[in-house]
Design goal:
Mean pLDDT: 85
Structural class: mainly alpha
Order of helices and strands: HHH
Radius of gyration: 32 Å
Helix content: over 70%
Number of helices: 3
Distance between the termini: 48 Å
CATH architecture: Orthogonal Bundle
CATH class: Mainly Alpha
């Protein structure tokens, strides 16, 4: 019986030693840092995508505004030339663009908010990584 008890004690000791190694704080911090850095890569890719979308939305707003200004100028020139029919057409196009501009501005606002949120996530993740790296060095 004592041999079996001794064997059981040795096996329990070995299992506890393995568990202690698995729960080594330094190894846990290293693993956590690896996970954070992997997440950071994903966040960076998503950040680039969201920022590109915001720039695209801003460009569309600017282009629509420029087009509206152009229609206004054309209508003005048509009136100066005495061509009221063309002036009316240009003003109608401007009205359509005004509605489109409102939609584009809303889309830009949403993309801008998304960009701010993802940048905050990025910054928070960077701070967390820095804190864990400092903890690892300590």
């Amino acid at each position: 019986m004592s041999i079996l008890t001794r064997f059981k004690d040795i096996m329990a000791s070995n299992i506890h030693a393995l568990l202690d190694k698995a729960e080594d704080p330094e190894k846990m911090i290293d693993q956590y840092l690896r996970n954070l850095n992997k997440d950071l890569g994903k966040v960076k890719a998503e950040t680039a995508s969201v920022l590109a979308e915001e720039q695209r939305a801003k460009r569309q707003v600017d282009e629509c505004q420029d087009e509206m200004d152009k229609m206004e100028r054309y209508a003005s020139k048509a009136l100066e030339a005495g061509n009221e029919g063309d002036a009316r057409k240009f003003l109608e196009k401007k009205e359509l663009l005004t509605a489109k501009l409102s939609e584009l501005q809303h889309a830009h606002l949403l993309s801008s908010q998304n960009a701010q949120q993802i940048m905050q996530m990025h910054d928070k993740l960077m701070k967390e990584i820095e804190e864990w790296e400092r903890a690892r060095r300590s």
